[in-house]
Amino acid sequence: MPPLLDAQALSKHYPVGGGRRGATLHAVDAVDLRIAPGECVGLVGESGCGKSTLVRLLARLIDPTSGRILLDGDDTTAVSQARFVTMPARARIQVVFQDPSESLNPSFRVFDSIADPLKRLLGIKDRAQLAVRVHRAADLVGLPRELIERYPHQLSGGQRARVGIARAIAVEPALLILDEPTSALDVSVQAVILRLLADLRARLGMSYLFVSHDLNVVRLLCSRVVVMYLGRVVEVAPTEALFTTPRHPYTQALIAAIPDPARRGEVRPRLDGSPRSPIDPDPDTCRFYGRCSRGTDRCATAMPALRPFGDDHFAACHFA
Amino acid sequence: MTAQLQIEAFSLAFRTRHGTVRALEDVSLSVQRGEIVGLVGESGSGKSVLAYAVMGLQDAAARVQSGRITFGGMDMLGASEQALADVRGREVAMIFQSPRAALNPIRKVGRQIEDILRQHANLPSSELRKHAIAALNRVRIPDPERRYNAYPFELSGGMCQRVMIAMALACSPFLLIADEPTTGLDVTTQAVIMDLIRDMSRDAQMSTLLITHDLGLAGEYCDRIAVMHAGHVVEVAPTEELLSHPAHPYTRQLLAATPTPRSTVDGLVSIPGQLPDLRRELPPCRFSARCARHVALCDELPLPWTVVNEAHLVRCWVPL
Predict the structure, then answer these.
(1) If you average pLDDT over residues A140-155, what whole number do you get?
(2) Which candidate, A130, A293, B162, B283, has a CA 20 to 30 Å from the CA of A9?
(3) Which range of residues forms the domain containing residue A60?
């Protein structure tokens, strides 16, 4: 099956410092990512590793420094970000943002929040037609009709999360990018939203890119997981393989850090310290070098590339 | 063993313009020497209000209605502001959720630790710097001499939280109150910080009250767990027992809603309804409206303390 989304050698660099000798911050570096139709891919990594920049690149909210993004085989990076917003492909990718209380316009009623992308992206102007689509989206996410005329501040956290999802799926996207959709919610509400997301994907056949720091949640929802470290992909694997036989030392540390009452009192290897600077990193040094328990001189002289380990399992480490 | 902290039948209400909020009702809990007790519950259940009350930090609108809080034999509710100020920071210390907000942004972190020492430790001025650096070293901050001169904005979130812990532990307190100490940190950093808190309490026989919404985290690090719902402590039990044999229906549902490495999306159970409005007239059991095991007794008689065994108490007429 051809991929729905195919990102090739995607990079985003930011100039910092200014002046002639200005340095470059490598937020995302040569990332390849494919998402098949109907697939749910998880994206994990610590804060500052470039997850959010990658999300913005894929959603075409910012322009990449280099690399291409193919959507249904068409190169979306051929046109500028400013032009892209007017194209029909814009509605194919939608984002559900992290904190639903921050990302909803406080002066919009629920109806207007959900109707806004329908008006802008699909050009629906007719009020009756809008109402049909808004109600359908609200029904899909289980938002009671009587809440549709309310303002965000009159809703609970779980209801606001539903509005954020309804707004994104109203235009019937092929790819839904979920950026930490449940991190602001209590577990009881999180459980409802996770089940809703699983149910929506089954019913609408959308692909998901699910960004989260909670590995237990990623494990529940995703069939494949991408691990990022300092702007680069260090491991890609089917979910079960990643959790049972992680190959990259960073992934191993990440999985060992999941709190687990079953392993109480055990002394586990911990990943201490902080990542290296993303500003002008040495192109020949592994980004994890210095923090890695297995680092050798070779890691400082040759950047490891992603290597295959069985079906669909790739890791970027000399010693994986 | 003697209880370091004893909370007995404590009730606290806030007088607001919109009525009296009965935030805590008949709360009893003790923390022994060297013990780590977890206080878990959803947001709004009263966890933080209880922690602040223990520190003697109450809002002007708060009214203690009944009960006692004693710390090492000292009455924390009746003590003068002078006596409390003397105890805080020296014998009871607290670490907060957002370390960057809790630290003074325009003062070097080393200086901020010195402030605590100057206030409480009775050290000559010439010794302060040495002790501050030792405190930074104890929380395993690399290169503490250099970090002494850092401002909070120059440090990562994990590093700021370590500075907070260094400040809290500078005077070797008997009791540490940790209010969501790792929320907002990466899982790898969370593991390091929690290991640190656990090791510190073991080594110094320090009591710890860990407030968290993450049952998995509490399960890995706590000796006992108290579950709060709508201002009530509904169940207290040793960790293993609480996780394997919860007796309160709310605890069981909270466990079923929390993703673990072994759960599935369909296995996740959400908790129906939401926290009741604490300004209203409430039935004796505040969970009764959400509870599947509800019987007539629940709305009539005051809540019992049902003894499952010596260490396992539950506030329910029909425990599991």
Answers:
(1) 91
(2) A293
(3) 5-99+175-315
